[in-house]
Amino acid sequence: MVFKPQTFHEIPPQSEMDDPTEAVLESDIAAALARAGFIDSSRISVAVTGDRVVLSGDVGSEAEIAAATEVARAVEGVGAVENRLAVQRGTT
């Protein structure tokens, strides 16, 4: 039996991620926010370009905004954090 290397019909396989490093960093930041017990991260979105992080969404207080920024900054690989979080106002 002879094994030949796969050629994929002369077309190399394509990655579905633009930059796997950015995807990993997004995942790491989202996980860190979820682990932080004092932040409700269920409405926070994380976007990464290079080493720049953008946090957007709604949180319950100004303290959560500050805490989310610090948690994101503490993740290895983060260079800058742009905070677009807003305090969600209750409806009555």
Walk me through what this model shows.
The chain has 92 residues and is an alpha+beta fold. It has a single domain (19-87), classed as Histidine-containing Protein, Chain: A, CATH 3.30.1340.30. Helices cover 32% and strands 24% of the residues. It has two helices and three strands, in the order αββαβ. It has a three-stranded mixed beta sheet with strand order 1-2-3. The longest helix is centred in the N-terminal third of the chain and has 16 residues, at 20-35. It starts with 19 loop residues before the first helix and ends in a 5-residue tail after the last strand.
Structure summarized in a few sentences:
With 92 residues, this protein is an alpha+beta fold. The chain has two helices and three strands. It has a single domain (19-87), classed as Histidine-containing Protein, Chain: A (2-Layer Sandwich).
Please give the alpha-carbon distance between the first and last residues: 74 Å
What is the CATH class?
A: Alpha Beta
State the CATH topology: Histidine-containing Protein, Chain: A
If classified by CATH, what would the architecture be? 2-Layer Sandwich
Compute the average pLDDT: 84
* Helix share bin: 25-40%
Radius of gyration: 19 Å
Task: Tell me the number of strands.
Answer: 3
| Strand order within the widest beta sheet | 1-2-3
- Biggest sheet statistics: 3 strands, mixed
Proportion of strand residues: 15-25%
The sequence of SSEs as H and E is HEEHE
The geometry reads as elongated
> How does the helix and strand content classify structurally?
alpha+beta
Total DSSP helices: 2
Number of domain modules: 1
